[in-house]
Design goal:
Rossmann fold; eight-stranded antiparallel beta sheet
Length: 280
């Protein structure tokens, strides 16, 4: 199988930026297959990019190189990095873009420790390594201060796909920036989460995960979001006008049949979502 690189950005598809980066990659690693995850991340929205990358990266074969560029701090002191996990490699800026890659390996983030989505430097978990991209021999030259996707991240992804080991790209890094996303915890029969993402259909993906609902009677749960409440968790979209159900990646999703839940409720990322055990 040819080496595989996934590609996620906020570049959009109107301008040729994403295609230009892919051209640079193919010049370095002609045999690479580059798969576009999305280039429609809202401009500069690091958390949205992090969430989408975290949602899908495990669907790819071991050894995949995941290139992600949502980089509002391009040209500043933020580090370009390669992150190495036992399953895959990740290339991009150290700005929180790999939060959901690292989150399963980190201790749970507490509710009142830092503000929601605050950038916090956290030590790398055991078994995971990272390296600063400082070795200029792997870059495209001259290096622009405004297009590191083309001149640093893309080339390094290409060389990694060609088999270069991560440690050849620069010195090791002991900690990385993560965005603070508190882990919901049941307290006195109430689970408080937040909206993490609103997809193009207007569905709300929340910080409540399938693991939080293990052993819970779905019909004994009162759902509260955006001033609306209803009884019971569903198993599919078609079970009511409003549904709360575990979607295909394991997140609790709030949906309105045939319409946008986000628009109807007027909620946004960070809006609260509560589940209450009612005993039916």
């Amino acid at each position: 199988m040819p080496p595989l690189i996934t590609f996620l950005t906020d570049y959009g598809t109107r301008e040729p930026y994403a295609g230009e980066v892919k051209g640079v990659i193919r010049a370095i690693c002609p045999q690479a297959e580059v798969i576009d995850l999305t280039h429609q991340v809202p401009p500069g929205d690091v958390h949205a990019g992090a969430f989408l990358l975290g949602m899908v990266w495990r669907s790819f074969p071991p050894g995949t190189v995941h290139l992600a560029v949502v980089d509002p701090g391009v040209g500043t002191a933020r580090l370009p990095i390669v992150l190495a996990t036992p399953e895959a490699l990740f290339v991009g800026p150290d700005n929180g873009l790999f939060t959901y890659v690292l989150r399963p390996f980190l201790p749970p983030m507490g509710k009142d420790v830092h503000p929601f989505l605050a950038p916090v430097r956290l030590p790398l978990p055991s078994g995971i390594s990272a390296y600063a991209l400082t070795e200029a021999r792997w870059f495209r030259h001259p290096v622009s201060r405004t297009f590191h996707g083309r001149d640093i991240f893309g080339p390094c992804a290409g060389w990694l796909a060609n088999g270069k080991p991560p440690h050849e790209f620069g010195p090791p890094v002991a900690d990385l920036v993560c965005l603070w996303v508190p882990e919901p915890v049941w307290e006195q029969g109430v689970l408080e989460g937040v909206v993490l993402h609103i997809d193009r259909f207007g569905n709300l993906l929340t910080s409540v995960h399938a693991g939080h609902l293990e052993g819970v009677d779905p019909q004994a749960v009162l759902v509260e979001v955006g001033g609306l409440c209803w009884q019971g968790l569903a198993g599919a979209y078609a079970e009511g006008e409003w549904t709360a159900h575990v979607e295909s990646h394991g997140w609790l999703e709030i949906a309105r049949r045939g319409a946008s839940a986000g628009e109807a409720l007027g909620v946004k990322v960070g809006s609260p979502v509560r589940l209450r055990l009612t005993g039916r």
